[in-house]
Amino acid sequence: MAAYRKRVDQGVCPRCGDLPITGHLKCIKCAQRDKETIRRTAHNLRHEVFMHYGGYICANSNCQITDPDVLTIDHIEGRKSLKHNSYITGERLYRWIRAHGFPNGFQVLCMNCNYKKHLQDSYPSISAWNHSIQTIPMPSNMSTVREGN
Ligand SMILES: [Zn+2]
Ligand SMILES: [Zn+2]
User: Fold this and answer.
1) Which residues crowd ion ligand 2, with CB under 5 Å?
2) Which numbered ligand comes closest to the C-alpha of 65?
3) Which structural domain range is residue 24 located in?
């Protein structure tokens, strides 16, 4: 720690003693390596959480999409049930889940199914309307109104 402090005082990278990036503490090599470590750690955590809740597959049996990029961890009973505010998402949520020993109440959903679920929960009437949209007849007076203008 003393060596670290000394290098900071000398204006060189505290890790390796090379010249730092202008305006930064560390050199480009150490900065990039740290960034890569952070990225890998975040990726591993996400992987661990997904593996616990069934792997990279949407839990909706009609969907079952497997693309990890579009999959997300869903609060089965809604985030209110766990008193999670809207900030507990992504990495924060993964960390919370691991810190609480991977509790029940989570599932893997794709973004579409997740969105659809919230739509159905929040606006059941809109969701019903979505299903029946194709059967709603065109207003019969539409063309006559236009002709009248
Ligand atoms: Zn360095
Ligand atoms: Zn899905």
Assistant:
1) 58, 60, 63, 65, 110, 113
2) 2
3) 7-52
